[in-house]
Amino acid sequence: MPTTFHGVLLSDDLMLRISRFQQGVPQQVLPLATYHQPTSSIPMSEVPAITSLIHQWLTLHGQHQLPKLLTWCPRVGRLLLIHAVATGQVNLLQVCLSSLVESAENLMDVAAYMGQLTMAVALVPYTLDDDAIMAAMFTAVSRGHLNIVEFLHRQLPSKSPQLHMPHLMDVAASNGHLSVVRFLHFNRHEGCTTLAMDQAASRGHLDILDFLHVHRQEGCTSAAMTLASTHGHVPVIQWLVEHRTRMAWRWSDAISSAAANGHVDVLGYIYAIKPRAGWTKQAMDVAACNGHVDVMRFLHRHRKDGCSEAAEALAAANGHVEVVAYLKEHGDELVHCVCCACGFVKPRSHACAAVARAAMRRRVCVK
């Protein structure tokens, strides 16, 4: 027969009233209550982790526990909102927003990040200013969600100077989203900068380069060639040479960048079209420093620039045993230093004419 003591302990209503005066939360809420979260907006990189956490909790405890969850730990409401938006659960969103309107900040950004058009539409009444829509537009552009870009574009007043976003097309071009680049070009007035073509070249987006070359006037900078060489995009380098014919490319930077990253195919292409432009000792130095012995073999075979005395020390410091062995074997041909006789930078093994002339003068003096 239950006693009064048992009756107190087994009363849900009474235990709930008592727990309100105690610190802490029930065990089942602990994973959510201890999850760190900023006071307002959250980094988009955390959205997948939050979604996974809430999904696991709902799988274990069910949605019928949500009212208790919000009572036990109100701050979890923001995590629920993020989960609802990220997974496209309109009903859950409406339930949460009915009592958590102040937590709607940044949610449009979450919808844009996850490509949830339905949620973006549902959030418009709760989005208080154009700045939030502009931030979401930037996110949607960077992720390539054209349907959300089109929707958010319609929510903003047209041709308002306060809503000018000059780098939208740059971001779309950098991430290879051609459909977004096309939409921004034909429907918005900001245009782009030279960063658009530079970054498209850096990431190997030939279709973006073609579109910008035909439809835009901003062009690119010499960084486009250097970035393409850095990342080994031979087709892009070829495209730049053929289409941007008036550019003064910095071939020494392109060659050094390709050598530093081990792109022998890039060096081969540049050597085929520019066998004398921009080749210096720095190319072999950076190749040695980063352990690219195949690049060193290419430069040794095709060039006579060699490397500096620092190459072997850099390779040894970074643990590139194969490079050190190669330099020990071929160092007399490759390592260039200042000759103490003639004062010119020459290979270590060069036969110095100044030494020969000095010896001849000594013989004449003896005679």
Q: How is the biggest beta sheet arranged?
A: 2 strands, antiparallel
Hey, roughly how much beta strand do the residues contain?
under 5%
Radius of gyration: 33 Å
* Helical content class: 55-70%
Describe the structure in your own words.
The protein is mainly α. The chain has a domain of 126 residues: Serine Threonine Protein Phosphatase 5, Tetratricopeptide repeat (Alpha Horseshoe). 62% of the residues lie in helices and 2% in strands. It has a two-stranded antiparallel sheet with strand order 1-2. A hairpin with a 6-residue loop joins strand 1 and strand 2. Helix 8 runs parallel beside helix 10 and helix 16 runs parallel beside helix 18. It is elongated and about 100 Å long. The C terminus is likely disordered. InterPro entries: Ankyrin_rpt, Ankyrin_rpt-contain_sf, SecEffector_AnkRepeat.
How do the strands and helices of this protein lay out in sequence?
Elements: H1 4-9, H2 12-19, H3 30-33, H4 47-61, H5 66-72, H6 76-87, H7 90-97, H8 107-114, H9 117-123, H10 130-143, H11 146-155, H12 168-174, H13 178-187, H14 194-202, H15 206-215, H16 223-230, H17 234-243, H18 251-260, H19 264-273, H20 281-290, H21 293-302, H22 310-317, H23 321-334, E1 336-338, E2 345-347, H24 353-366
Antiparallel strand pairs: 1-2
InterPro entries: Ankyrin_rpt, Ankyrin_rpt-contain_sf, SecEffector_AnkRepeat
Pfam family, one: Ank_2
